[in-house]
Design goal:
Ubiquitin-like (UB roll), 2 domains, six-stranded mixed β-sheet, 5 helices, 15% strand, binds FE2/S2 (inorganic) cluster
Length: 184
């Protein structure tokens, strides 16, 4: 993360690449990242459940790694990349395989925890692309579902792992096929 750009009238200028778009805003030094995202950058898909780093509802990716955005100061994200739930689907609205898996496996009831669960799952499956059920439960232990819908959530994460692994295999097979066509 880069140093702070400038300080003026007690406000600090921060620049963050949010869902692929470079954004700049003046914030108070005490401003939390979740408030910057929601109130100044319009990323209201990132929700606040507790604001005390207990529930995980506010989870986003900071430089590719999941963090609870209520436990990060906005100034700590200066110069960084932040990915939120609002940047996960394709531009044409096609759901990300993790979103699709949550949909198909009833991984949500009220949906309040879902943005955080999904973003944590992105990170979890990067850390461990083929987790066991116990590993999924351990990986999601910082994210609470008040509806206690964990069975569907765990199923969804494992389905997403399978879908992502299939798409990685087919992409690699397509690359091999394309390479053999070029060399033949
Ligand atoms: S709102 Fe951030 S962990 Fe609950
Ligand atoms: S689906 Fe209701 S809190 Fe998770």
């Amino acid at each position: 993360m880069a140093g702070l750009s400038h300080m003026r009238s007690g406000m600090v200028s921060v620049s963050v690449t949010v869902d692929g778009v470079r954004r700049t805003a003046d914030v108070e030094p005490r401003t939390l990242l979740v408030h910057l995202l929601r109130e100044q950058f319009g990323r209201v898909g990132t929700v606040i459940g507790c604001e005390t780093s207990n529930c995980g509802a506010c989870t986003v990716l900071l430089d590719g790694v999941s963090v609870k955005s209520c436990s990060v100061l906005a100034v700590q994200a200066d110069g960084a990349t932040v990915d939120t739930i609002q940047g996960l689907a394709a531009p044409d609205g096609t759901l990300h395989p993790i979103q699709q898996a949550f949909h198909e496996n009833h991984g949500l009831q009220c949906g309040y925890c879902t943005p955080g669960m999904v973003m944590r799952t992105v990170s979890l499956l990067q850390e461990n692309p083929d987790p066991t059920e116990d590993e999924v439960r351990a990986g999601l232990k910082g994210n609470l579902c008040r509806c206690t819908g964990y069975q569907g959530i765990v199923k969804a994460v494992q389905a997403a792992a399978a879908a992502l692994s299939t798409s990685a295999t087919s992409t690699s097979a397509e690359r091999t096929h394309a390479a053999s066509e070029v060399t033949s």
